[in-house]
Design goal:
Elements lengths: L6 E3 L2 E3 L6 E6 L4 E7 L3 H18 L4 H17 L1 H12 L3 H19 L9 E6 L2 E9 L2 E5 L7 H12 L3 E5 L5 H13 L7 E3 L4 H9 L5 E5 L2 H13 L3 E5 L4 E5 L5 H13 L9 E6 L5 H13 L19 H14 L5 E4 L15 E4 L6 H4 L6 E5 L4 H8 L4 E2 L1 E5 L3 H10 L4 E4 L15 E2 L2 E2 L6 H7 L1 E9 L3 H7 L1
Parallel strand pairs: 7-8, 7-10, 8-9, 10-11, 12-13, 12-18, 13-16, 15-16, 18-19
Antiparallel strand pairs: 1-2, 3-4, 5-6, 6-22, 11-21, 14-15, 17-20
Helix pairs in contact: 2-4, 2-6, 3-4, 3-6, 4-5, 7-8
Bound molecules: nicotinamide-adenine-dinucleotide (NAD).
The site of nicotinamide-adenine-dinucleotide (NAD) has 29 residues, from α7 and α8.
């Protein structure tokens, strides 16, 4: 097979020997564009060995030298943005503007990592006691590993490896087997930027490799992003084996529309939040909460806008507004959920099943009305372009209902009242709140701050918490008694 994705171990790109492969599709055409080899424990062992060797050297590089390589990397990503966006769009199905956003968000983490020494510098206090000075060092952990999902092939791995590496660690990335090509391009560019061999290794696969990483005695920390049941498994297994773990999980995010919301920008934000990336964002709005009596016109505008949405192959038609979902399993899973809705008492008012038999893994925009917290669709993550509509009477009831969700990534309120926005942001139980912002995903200087079943661990990815996660503190106390008196005594 010529189209097998290579692994990257110790600075070399290799085709590994295995009999197990996953298919990488162009989700718009269903064409198989590559095959992902499933690595085994032997490959994990080789990657760890290379990472350990590299860590010994890399952790001793000065921050200035590391920054020089990161700045080179930043420039290479900048000049290759369009190429990377095309790879993302091809293997994931996103539109080109969405793919550009994906790599842009990753780029911002590299930007952040270039100046990481400001956050990695520790604290000091002289004369904490007579002749005693105290300081803290933030030291790298060793070999860290990252496991990423399919939906942001660039951004999510880049929440992890640039920060870990900038702090002096070496890193093993296991990208989603559904989108390995973006990760390969990102590693090629890092190598070109001058990253020493073994500081970043890439292996492929599924459960066998992930479990091997979680239990390996020479891996110090695991970063995971994916569905909640696997996030919980990785968190538990990694922690049991003495590792630091941060594990992002699934989500169910609400878009609350108050009667005083500004109609045009609110509607644009809802469309982009619910149907952008075909609903496959962990910050996608999937519950539309129209508060108060008069939400009929809101629903009608949503139906009209959904009917007008251009759904298709992003690489063939630049006017495409929504691409396909990732694969045939996802498409069937979403259609099966819609098929079953009739029995649950809710009403499909805009049906995305009209393109069920079209070539490509397409699901049309779908609107489900009359939903309340007793319906399974209220709390279930669908990860597709399906928006459920609720109609509570006021903001207090809204908060009470939304706080029944087990997930806790994001929630947005659209309003022109500062008081309502403040009440909402103070009382809603989730980690990222938007006020008139449809996708309140934080930029690289802030943590990606999921709560409840959307995150297992203590320190989140990105920002200051990202640096804390990939370093450990050492407190150094030093005592120099009467130095000058001693000298003058001689
Ligand atoms: P997934 O859980 O299927 O896969 C994620 C990773 O886990 C992949 O690398 C995969 O190979 C690996 N994996 C799969 N099965 C495994 C198993 N049994 N044991 C160990 N590892 C296994 O997720 P996905 O479908 O790729 O991504 C979509 C999910 O990711 C959604 O639930 C979405 O909400 C979530 N997500 C969360 C965030 C966040 O920050 N909270 C961000 C992006 C995506």
């Amino acid at each position: 097979m010529d189209n097998v994705a290579p692994v990257f171990i110790d600075g070399k790109w290799e085709k590994i020997k295995t009999s197990e492969f996953g298919k990488v599709f162009n989700p718009s055409s269903e064409e198989v564009i590559s095959m992902t080899p499933f690595c085994g424990k032997k490959d994990v062992e080789r990657a760890v060995k290379s990472s350990l060797k590299a860590f010994k050297v890399w952790s001793k590089f000065s921050y200035a030298k590391r920054a020089e390589i990161l700045f080179n990397y930043r420039e290479l990503i900048k000049s290759n943005k369009e190429k990377i966006a095309n790879i993302i769009s091809l293997e994931n199905g996103k539109t080109l503007p969405e793919a550009r956003g994906d790599i842009q968000r990753g780029f911002e983490v590299v930007d952040f990592a270039c100046g990481i020494l400001h956050l990695a510098k520790g604290e000091s206090l002289s004369e904490i006691a007579p002749n005693i000075d105290s300081r803290t060092n933030l030291e790298p952990l060793g070999v860290c590993a990252g496991i990423s999902p399919f939906n942001f092939p660039a951004m999510v791995p880049m929440w992890m490896f640039p920060i870990a590496i900038a702090c002096g660690n070496s890193f093993i990335l296991k990208p989603s087997e559904k989108v390995p090509l973006t990760a390969i391009k990102l590693a090629e560019l890092f190598q070109e930027a001058g990253l020493p061999d073994g500081v970043l290794n890439i292996i492929h696969g599924g459960k066998e490799v992930v479990d091997a990483l979680c239990i390996h005695p020479n891996i110090s920390a695991i970063s995971f992003v994916g569905s909640s049941h696997i996030a919980k498994h990785v968190y538990t297994l990694g922690a049991k084996h003495g590792k630091r773990v941060q594990a992002g999980g699934a989500a169910k995010n609400a878009l609350v529309v108050m009667p005083d919301a500004e109609p045009k920008s609110t509607m644009n934000s809802i469309m982009s939040s619910a149907f952008g990336c075909a609903g496959q964002r962990c910050m996608a709005g999937s519950l539309l909460v129209g508060v108060g009596k008069n939400i009929d016109s809101l629903k009608q505008t949503l139906i009209d806008r959904s009917n007008d949405l251009v759904v298709g192959d992003p690489l063939k038609n630049e006017k495409t507004e929504m691409g396909p979902v990732i694969d045939g399993n996802s498409k069937e899973r979403i259609f099966n959920i819609i098929d079953g809705l009739g029995e649950t008492g809710v009403k499909v008012i805009r049906d995305g099943r009209e393109i069920r038999n079209k070539e490509g893994f397409f699901v049309g925009p779908t609107l489900v009305d009359n939903v309340d917290s007793s319906h399974p669709i209220f709390s279930q993550e669908i990860f597709g372009p399906v928006l459920s509509i609720l109609n509570p009477k006021d903001i207090e009831e809204t908060v009470e209902v939304l706080n029944k969700l087990n997930y806790g990534n994001g929630a947005t309120i659209f309003t022109s009242s500062g008081n309502t926005a403040r009440y909402f942001s103070e009382n809603i139980k989730c980690g990222m709140v938007g006020i008139n912002v449809g996708v309140p995903a934080p930029m690289s200087i802030y943590p990606f701050s999921g709560w409840n079943d959307s995150f297992y661990g203590d320190l989140h990815m990105q920002g200051k918490e990202g640096v804390q996660f990939y370093t450990r503190q050492k407190v150094i106390l030093s005592r120099w008694d009467n130095l000058y008196e001693y000298k003058s005594g001689w």
